[in-house]
Write a structure and sequence with these properties.
Layout: H1 5-16, E1 39-44, E2 47-52, E3 62-68, E4 71-78, E5 84-89, E6 95-100, E7 110-113, E8 119-123, H2 125-132, H3 136-141, E9 154-155, E10 161-166, E11 169-174, E12 180-182
Antiparallel strand pairs: 1-2, 2-3, 3-4, 5-6, 6-7, 7-8, 9-10, 10-11, 11-12
């Protein structure tokens, strides 16, 4: 058989293989993003926050709407693609967004908003890495949710402190001041 026919023969054989036989890592659908729900609600009474998409995730834009005792207080478009990976609403009405839904070293790794919707602080993945004095590999190898988070954030010693486990250690975030510390 002439050498020029081999590539054509191989290509023809590949086309004849049913898609269910091809390993998932070779198929185009293996690289698709699973979208978050079109609406998510987070609450700590009397506060609640709703994260929605206006277009069914045709674009990565997410909108957050904050309520106090059922009354809308503020609304903002989030910089996080497809919204944040974690959202926490404190008993004092502060909101913490952790990481992006997509798996990247985000410039929006932590975002804190006041009960009035004002930005208290925003930190990148690099800022967190510098605060904890850890290598990127230390943070990412132990991550179980997203790029750097090992366990979901939780309220710490008081209602204004959030603890986030990462890289074998804990990051403490003050929701009122926005300060980050190694815990």
């Amino acid at each position: 058989m002439p050498k020029l026919l081999w590539p054509i023969l191989v290509f023809s054989l590949l086309l004849a293989i049913p898609s269910f036989v091809i390993p998932s890592f070779w198929r185009a659908d293996a690289d698709r993003l699973t979208h978050p729900p079109q609406q998510q609600t987070f609450s700590t009474p009397p506060y609640s926050l709703s994260i929605t998409t206006d277009d069914g995730w045709q674009t990565p834009t997410a909108v957050a709407t904050f309520y106090a005792a059922g009354n809308r207080r503020w609304q903002t478009t989030l910089p996080h693609e497809y919204g944040p990976r974690f959202t926490l609403v404190s008993a004092t009405g502060h909101v913490l967004f952790v990481d992006e839904y997509i798996n990247v070293a985000s410039p929006h790794a932590l975002t804190i908003l006041s009960p009035q919707g004002e930005h208290t602080a925003q930190y990148s993945f690099d800022d967190i890495q510098q605060t904890l004095n850890l290598r990127t590999s230390d943070l990412t190898q132990q991550a179980t949710s997203g790029w750097w988070v090992s366990n979901p954030p939780r309220i710490g010693d008081n209602e204004n402190q959030v603890l986030i486990e990462t890289g074998g250690t804990t990051l403490a975030v003050n929701l009122v001041t926005g300060a980050m510390t190694h815990h």
